[in-house]
Design brief:
The protein contains 8 helices and 17 strands. With about 375 residues, the chain is an alpha/beta fold. Strands 8, 9, 10, 13, 14 and 15 form a 6-stranded parallel β-sheet that branches. Strand 16 and strand 17 (about 350) form a beta hairpin. The longest helix has 26 residues, at about 240-265. The radius of gyration is 21 Å and the shape is globular.
Length: about 375
């Protein structure tokens, strides 16, 4: 069985939207997880059993997890099987790549992050930057026009090129300062920002990565570019056909154009596309944020199709997948609060209040996956 090849009574795990990435990255002395409910899109994953066959770590009810040792550096095969009462319904193989704790030590890593609200949020970039401050790491330089939370970049501190609500196409189409409205989920989002990659040449605007580096980054070139894009634009879609049409027309062509221009300027750059966490497990959070505009069930399907699209285009477009979703606790990593059980009730119930934007701890666990991949490319 090849990596990421699923077998199922209904054919390759499609009936449960089963997806395990081809590679998962880990670093010695840092915890790595595979959270089982993140692997499937079924309505009630509690009705399934997950079994893990590998030579390290331990399997619990919600996850497989491991803190690799120096002796475990290298590649390890992991097979995950999914069962219901009738037997095995899906199975796939992945490779856990364990990287030394000192990978990249004494070198410099120049990173540019391009993304949307979760990458732009305060807490995310800082968590990633902080990982590199420990001994045994390369010196991290982060490029970008602003700090996480849209603040000013401090010398040597975290930075990015990420904006709430933006898409792959926004970076090619936002030529004005007032053509993206604010909303309640991105209260700090600046609306007066055109795409920093667009420059007017004659009567038209052109995506020009070289000019961006000169204007915004003082001419510094990134060793790696990490993308967190794709949710906006397809989030509210309600059918597989609409999602696939959006992927074909509004994501893949713009990914290709952006990556080609980046490589034109930096031929040896490493490109990483994130398979992002798929949101809170709770429908309450989706109801709070989106009313009846989108459900947890439908969004899981959209996210699965997005992840599949990124997986299918990786080889042709020459990027690597950063599987943040497998290492992310979708039960506890989103903000919660006590609210009345119903209007007028004195009984308080705990409810999740954000469907897609995690707590600081959640951003920290997300940043772990980015850190693991960056350490991997520094080793290689």
């Amino acid at each position: 069985m090849n990596a990421n090849e699923s077998v199922s009574v209904s054919g390759k795990g499609e009936s449960i939207g089963f997806m395990l990435p081809e590679k998962i990255y880990a670093v010695v002395e840092h915890e790595i997880n595979i959270y089982f409910r993140n692997l499937v899109t079924v309505i009630n994953p509690d009705m399934l059993a997950f079994e893990v066959n590998t030579n390290l770590g331990r399997t619990d009810a919600e996850r497989w997890h491991c803190i690799p040792t120096a002796e475990q550096v290298g590649e390890h095969k992991i097979v995950v099987s999914v069962w219901n009462d009738d037997g095995i319904i899906a199975e796939a193989e992945t490779t856990l790549v364990v990287v030394p704790a000192n990978a990249g030590e004494g070198r410099e890593l120049v990173l540019l992050e391009i993304g949307a609200s979760c990458m732009a949020a305060a807490g995310h970039g800082e968590a990633l930057w902080q990982r590199f401050q420990a001994p045994g790491n390369p010196k991290l330089t982060m490029l970008g026009s602003h700090a996480p939370g849209y603040g000013a970049v401090q010398p040597g501190g975290p930075a990015n090129e990420a904006y709430g609500g933006w898409t792959w196409t926004t970076f090619f189409e936002k030529t004005k300062t007032n053509n993206l409205a604010n909303d309640g989920l991105h209260p700090a989002r600046p609306t007066d920002v055109p795409s920093p990659f667009l420059f007017k040449k004659g009567d038209e605007f052109t995506f020009d990565f070289a000019q961006y580096l000169d204007k915004v980054c003082g001419g510094r070139k990134p060793d790696a570019v990490l993308f967190e894009l794709g949710v906006n634009g397809l989030f509210l879609l309600k059918s597989d056909e609409d999602v696939k049409r959006h992927l074909e027309n509004r994501i893949v062509p713009y990914m290709k154009r952006m990556m080609e221009d980046i490589r034109r300027v930096v031929p040896d750059v490493k490109l990483g596309v994130q398979l992002i966490p798929t949101g809170s497990v709770s429908q309450d959070a989706f109801g709070k944020n989106y009313g009846t505009s989108q459900s947890k069930r439908r969004w899981l399907r959209n996210a699965y199709l997005l992840h599949r699209c990124y997986e299918e285009n990786a080889l042709e477009l020459g990027y690597e997948l950063v599987p943040a979703y497998v290492n992310f606790d979708c039960v506890r990593n989103y903000p919660q609060q006590l609210v009345p059980a119903y209007e007028g009730s004195t009984i308080q119930v705990n409810t999740v209040t954000n469907a897609l934007h995690p707590t600081r701890e959640g951003y920290g666990q997300w940043a772990d996956s980015e850190f693991f991949w960056l350490k991997y490319i520094m080793q290689n």
